[in-house]
Specification:
The structure is a single chain. By secondary structure, this protein is α/β, with parallel strands linked by helices. It has a single domain, classed as P-loop containing nucleotide triphosphate hydrolases (Rossmann fold), CATH 3.40.50. The protein is about 40% helix and about 20% strand. The chain has nine helices and ten strands. A six-stranded mixed beta sheet has the order 6-7-8-3-9-10, sandwiched between helices. A four-stranded antiparallel beta sheet has the order 2-1-4-5. A hairpin with a 2-residue loop joins strand 4 and strand 5. Helix 3 packs parallel to helix 5 and helix 5 runs parallel beside helix 6. The radius of gyration is 18 Å and the shape is globular.
Length: about 250
């Protein structure tokens, strides 16, 4: 049996001056070519977990491997094989869409004609080629989301991390983004994704883990989790059953 593409062992994260662990003894194995959803309420630990896996913050303790590389020994190799699409737009507002993407592509070591071809092909694929020379600050939210996505996949990562990739976008942009991600996945990219859109996650993900208070409460296929949860008709019912109905306002 092949090794999972992501293997997480006893991972903890506690921020300075925090009372509780944001990620608390978390263990998880994600197989290659999954579309894996990390779902949970505000403050559940989703973004903290993603940030550790992307190498943006250090775990308090524990370890993980991505593509067989261990975080504590091979962080540089891990960063070369992953793509990251953050929830906040990681774009320069006064540069054009094409200028942004040429810049991000060059950071991944892409150059010249290869880079320009990849940028224009991706812009065309996501319906943005005719806006390639417009400044990002003139774009709608949905257009910025699509450019943000392209910036994370130009180097063809084997693992793609997405933090709320469709938040605040129109239905058309959402559909285009989801279809594009499914295509990337069918070509071999493993996708790790957080979202508050439970209906979207139910349709999109091959596997799901529901995380709350830094721990995994349930894991499985969307259909399997719905089937296993008494009186559940959809993923939202499963989510409420496991995480409760109390408000999770976070400031």
């Amino acid at each position: 049996m092949s090794m999972p593409i992501i293997y997480i062992h006893q991972l903890y994260k506690k921020y300075k001056d925090a009372d509780d662990f944001s990620v608390n003894n978390l263990n998880l194995a994600i197989e290659e070519k999954e579309i894996f959803g990390l779902l949970g309420p505000n403050g559940a630990g989703k973004t903290t977990l993603l940030s550790m896996l992307c190498g943006l913050i250090k775990p308090t303790s524990g370890n993980f491997t991505i593509n067989g590389f261990s975080y504590d020994k091979n962080a540089t190799q891990i960063k070369k094989t992953i793509g990251v699409v953050p929830q906040e737009y990681a774009l320069y507002p006064t540069l054009t869409a094409r200028e942004n993407l040429l810049y991000f592509g060059s950071m991944y070591g892409l150059r010249g004609k290869v880079l320009r071809t990849k940028v224009d092909a991706a812009l065309d694929h996501l319906g943005l080629l005719k806006f390639a020379n417009k400044e990002i600050d003139t774009f709608s939210g949905g257009m910025k989301r699509r450019v943000n996505l392209i910036a994370g996949i130009l180097h063809q990562p084997s693992v793609l991390f997405l933090d709320e990739p469709t938040v605040g976008v129109d239905v058309q942009s959402k559909n285009v983004i989801i279809d594009y991600l499914k295509e990337l996945n069918s070509n071999g990219t493993t996708i790790i994704y957080t979202s508050h859109h439970l209906t979207e996650a139910q349709d999109f993900c091959t596997k799901i883990a529901i995380i709350d208070r830094g721990k995994i409460y349930a894991e499985g296929t969307p259909k399997g989790l719905i089937h296993e949860t008494p009186n559940a008709h959809n993923l939202e019912d499963v989510f409420i059953s496991l995480t409760g109905k109390e408000l999770r306002d976070d400031v």
